[in-house]
Amino acid sequence: MPSTSSLSADLSEAERPTWPAIRRGWHGKCPNCGSGPMLRGYLTVRDSCPACGEALHHQRADDGPAYLTILIVGHLMAPLLMFVFTTWRPEPATLIAIFSLFTVVTSLYLLPRIKGAMVALQWAKRMHGFGAAPTDAADLHHDAA
Q1: Is residue 108 part of a domain?
Q2: Is the pLDDT reported for residue 5 higher than 90?
Q3: CA 46 to CA 115: how far, in whole Å?
């Protein structure tokens, strides 16, 4: 019969499903349980999930979500802008007003979703400390002081 320490090591190294975690993160939910909210406010990641207690403070999303948001919105807007301009030839002020609004709204929509997906990917791949088993209660709160 395996010892308790080997069982806990097996559980801590168990495969974490990547795509379900990313889908949960996209929806702003905990990548572990899928029910607790991951974000507190617009972009602030909670230290831990209020539903299952999974530590989320390990995340290191930094500028990644902003970069991906700009990349996606730019790749959507550039061809759309060219199509609208060559097809209908709207006034420049109209074009600027519509595309500025569409760019801001799309960016604001995508940014928290991409951040949630990136944190969930880090959790699923055990990056930045997500794979380490906590050794004491101090690890759960990550320098609360």
Answers
A1: yes
A2: no
A3: 12
**In angstroms, what CA-CA distances link 129 with 16, 45, 109, 139?**
14, 15, 29, 10
**Residue 80 domain-assigned (yes or no):** yes
Going by their DSSP bridges, the two strands 44-45 and 39-40 should be labelled as antiparallel
- pLDDT per position as a tens digit, 65-78: 999 999 999 999 99
Reported as a single tens digit per residue, the pLDDT across 48-59 is 999 999 999 999
Residue 12 lies in a domain: no
For 51, the token pair is 């539903």
Question: Which secondary-structure segment (H or E) carries 44?
Answer: strand 44-45
Alpha-carbon dihedral angle through residues 123, 126, 130, 135, given to the nearest 10 degrees: 150
pLDDT in tens, 21-35: 999 999 999 999 999
| Count of structural domains, the chain | 1
Q: Is residue 41 part of a domain?
A: yes
The residue among 37, 12, 33, 36 whose CA lies nearest residue 21 is 33
